[in-house]
Amino acid sequence: MSQENMKFEEMGLRNEVLKGIKEMGFVSPSPVQSQAIPIALQGDDLIAQAQTGTGKTAAFAIPILNQIEKNREIEALVITPTRELAMQISDEVFKLGKFLRIKTVCVYGGQSIRRQCELLENNPQVLVATPGRLLDHLKNDRIPNFSPKVVVLDESDEMLDMGFLDDVEEIFSYLPSNRQTLLFSATMPEQIQKLAHKILDKPKYVKITPANITNTDITQKCYVINEGHRDEAIVRLMDVFTPQKSIIFTSTKKEADALAERLVEAKYKAGALHGDMDQRARMDSIRAFKANKVNILVATDVAARGLDISDVSHVFNYHIPLNPESYVHRIGRTGRAGKKGMAITLITPLEFKELKRIQDEVKHSLELEELPVYEVSHNELVQKILKTKIADEAMDIYNELMDKHDETNSALKLISYILKEGTKSKIGPNQQEINRLQEQEKKPKQDYNSRRREGGNSRFGSQRDSHSRGFRGNSRGGRRY
Ligand code: ADP
Ligand code: MG
């Protein structure tokens, strides 16, 4: 039997663990689970790479639970970047371990040290911790007889992004050397590989490629706009697609705040989520989104990564992501659990060159389209007008119009103007122009020799390039791993 289709019942798990899995409602293991669990059960070190939402938590929680002895000591440690993730993980371990009567403790910054010490004295078997606070406890010798048999580094790439790698490395100097170490990550940047080399012992590798996830359940769209029209374009797309629940990924925290504000002004239920917000504000945002009080989350990659929100209908890329993995990662937030999803990317002509690398990664060609106009129905428009609050400047304009026309004429002119400008106006280049720009992009910009001199810096190329082996080699060479 190949591990690919291995069932939970065939993994040699304890009955209590199988019951816990059933209780969680898991019928069959996800790909990363069916590959990682048997390796972890054998006691080997492991590096597992799989994108967000693929069930990595249970992939380490199940083998941990299977070897718990309940010997009044902490037997397993899970290190994870944020408090929210720590709480999610602790909750899942607790639920899976329900029939083993497992105790878990969460340790993170912002909570009182004394309270955490009390919890640690309760003899938990599993400790879930964020790096900073854990290191603080270890340095001050506040966790007696700390010698976990299994140590998990969860969401490792996010720890890197958040600048925790030094802390993580220092934590390992307090851990027993005969431990089993499991490293989980969605992407595998060089620094993580280096860290893995230092802290893992002859690890086995599991890598779940996302290609099969991205094609089937997610419709991918790319709309061409000009720089400076991103907010407007997002509002337009919201009007056109009326997404039930969406995440908009921005590159910066500032953009996230500004766009969320703009959407709120346009009467959308939007909220921001990024690393500059304090823990409480972030938790509030996530909770509101989960409870559908807010149905548009404007987020940066780091803030949104790893969060388990399963019913997202649309993902928007405010910019085309520079890193193809990040694209795959983001759009993987929709189309989960067999549901259909849509991923929409805004792209300016200057960003066309990024497209090729993304297409290579998702093995799917992305058509560039013009931004749709918003065909508002009469009824809808009437409702919108009726709901609009009267602005101060409106009175001045009204008076001016009345000087020149009668009321009916003014009103009809006004409505015609709204139809033309407000809803059906064009944002960005039209399809013809897009095709022309794309052709231009494909044409070699310089003569052959000068392009050669540019070498690996040129990440895109002519049509001819893309079919030659040399291009692929170059493109791969420019990637992060
Ligand atoms: P990751 O850490 O890879 O981002 P999670 O561990 O947070 O993913 O899991 C994502 C979601 O999938 C969670 O809601 C989890 O309960 C669910 N899940 C995990 N494994 C399974 C499974 N085998 N069957 C069904 N749902 C699962
Ligand atoms: Mg996870």
The major beta sheet can be summarized as: 7 strands, parallel
Q: How would you name the CATH homologous superfamily of the largest domain?
A: P-loop containing nucleotide triphosphate hydrolases
The distinct bound ligands, ions and cofactors come out as:
adenosine-5'-diphosphate, magnesium ion
Strand order of the largest sheet: 3-4-2-5-6-1-7
Share in helix: 40-55%
Share of residues in strands: 5-15%
- How many DSSP-defined strands? 14
**Computed CA radius of gyration, to the nearest angstrom:** 26 Å
Ends: how far apart?
Answer: 32 Å
Structural class: alpha/beta
Counting structural domains, the number is 3
Query: Any idea of the CATH class of the largest domain?
Result: Alpha Beta
Silhouette: elongated
CATH architecture of the largest domain: 3-Layer(aba) Sandwich
**What is the helix tally?**
23
Low-confidence stretches: 447-481
Q: Which fold does the CATH topology of the largest domain refer to? A: Rossmann fold
Mean pLDDT over all positions: 84
Main features:
481 residues; alpha/beta; Rossmann fold; seven-stranded parallel sheet; elongated; binds adenosine-5'-diphosphate; binds magnesium ion; nucleic acid binding; hydrolase activity; DEAD/DEAH_RhlB
